[in-house]
Write the structure tokens for this entry.
Amino acid sequence: MKTLFGKTWIVMVAIMFTVGFGFSSCSDDDNETATPQLINANLTDSEEEALLFMLEEEKLARDVYIYLGNLWGTNQFLNIKQSEQTHMDAVKSLLDKYDVSYEILPVGSFNNQELQFLYNTLIEQGSQNVLSALNVGAGIEDLDIVDLQNYLDEMERPDIVAVFESLQCGSENHLRSFVFGITNLGEDYVPSYLTPEIYESILNSEQQSCL
């Protein structure tokens, strides 16, 4: 259980790109053709729940950035919303791969009512001024990075691990962009979830090329 800007946000962070992993089954007979097999094709309940939640978590970021981008015309929101759409598409690809049904509601609407409440709260906060909007964006990415690391510490499925790492890479890029905008307004962003050491390490790193 975590809080974002004083409101409860249970974030289960899941995955971005579909990566195929397999192995070859063979016998001592050199003439037998090896047959590729899918490793652990069935998701666990927790993995399925994570995928479904992540679809809407990525949608939350996208929808907030769409709203604030239209309101303020700020480059960070206009650019990053495209990245969040790519993240949504990647999660959908994995849901399709594992034959998990899902529903995507219109912009600003969510199946998960906590995310619905969070969306309403964030756009209200971000509507105050550009600085508040940039802090909303930085806060979303700050929390995403921490949640992703928590899942990376627990996940074993190779495609999930690979995608979580890519999502974390993207969130670090986004955080740097939002903090850059905050700094240009003469203010500082104080992380709510990242440790000061990790936050400084991210800020001092170069923008990365992420999947």
Notes: Helices lie at 45-72, 75-97, 113-126, 130-152, 158-184, 196-203. The beta strands are 2-4, 7-9, 22-25, 35-38. The first strand starts at residue 2 and ends at 4. The longest helix spans residues 45-72.
